[in-house]
Amino acid sequence: MSQPILRFAPSPNGLLHLGHAFSALQTHDWAKGLDGRFLLRIEDIDTARCKPEFTDAIFEDLAWLGLKWEEPVLRQSNRFAIYRDAANQLAENGWTYPCFCSRAEIAEAATGTDPDGAPLYPGTCRHLGRSERERRIAAGDPVQYRLDMPKLVGKVGVLTFTQAQPSPMDRPQIRYANPARWGDAVIARKDMPTSYHLSVVIDDAAQGITHVTRGRDLEAATDIHVLLQFLLGLPQPIYTFHRLLLDDDGDKLSKSRRSMSIRALREQGWTPEDVREAVSL
Ligand code: GLU
User: Fold this and answer.
1) Cα of 103 to ligand 1 centre, how many Å?
2) CATH class of 1-78+245-281
3) Please, which residues have CB within 8 angstroms of residue 203's CB and are 6 or more apart in sequence?
4) What is the pLDDT of residues 100-138, one digit of tens each?
5) Which CATH code of 3.10.290.10, 3.40.50.150, 3.30.70.580, 3.40.50.620 fits the domain covering 79-237?
6) pLDDT, tens digit, for every residue of 31-75?
7) Could you tell which of 22, 54, 200, 213 is best to mutate to test the pocket of ligand 1, judged by most ligand atoms within 8 Å of the CB?
8) Model-level pTM?
9) Which of 5, 16, 43 to mutate to test the pocket of ligand 1 (most atoms within 8 A of CB)?
């Protein structure tokens, strides 16, 4: 097998907290343990929420933690044209369709929730005729593109992926992907020609990532990623999902808890070793 390539892919929409430090350190240490490469990717497609100062803080905090990554760092905000091409390819193949529904309309028509707890879209716009779609696009109505899941489920059949155990990473297990539970997931948003799902699979392939390591909160999203890799003819990495750090109430550490930011801990006199100890590494 070629040299393993792992990545840490934070979104610069806040300061890194202990949960990020844990994820970054795990991924870095696994890469080293596998004699592999460690890459960093800045996932800043959400230009309204992501800020350059948070990107700078990521570099500073990770360097302070003692991590070394390869340059140049891939920044998703430089790659919208690439994502747009892929989204167009999916649309031209009839695998996505334009959806004009508002958030309120979706919430009202929802038939349940997806694995993230968001309203499950009932496929209203899947039934629009071609001329109506063209008319609304020409009129400049805000449009997002959704996977035509009923069509795709029939087309792709059974999809699987390989999950490795975090430690050691050599006991793989084959898992079934179940993209249907996401319904007609959004692949290109109204405010951008892409989505987290589309950008992440394109960039994991572009960076030659062999092992995706991420928290269990993103485990279910792998269903969509495996489907997109199949549709776009992209290689499929091995997946590993690490545990999440929880706060005292049992909730996932979130960026809103400022006191937990690496920056704040540094200011309180913590050392990188203290961080490693706090996350039990
Ligand atoms: N950018 C995502 C986040 O900060 C993680 C991306 C991934 O691991 O797929 O939650």
Assistant:
1) 24
2) alpha beta
3) 9, 41, 74, 76, 79
4) 999 999 999 998 999 999 999 999 999 999 999 999 999
5) 3.40.50.620
6) 999 999 999 999 999 999 999 999 999 999 999 999 999 999 999
7) 200
8) 0.95
9) 43
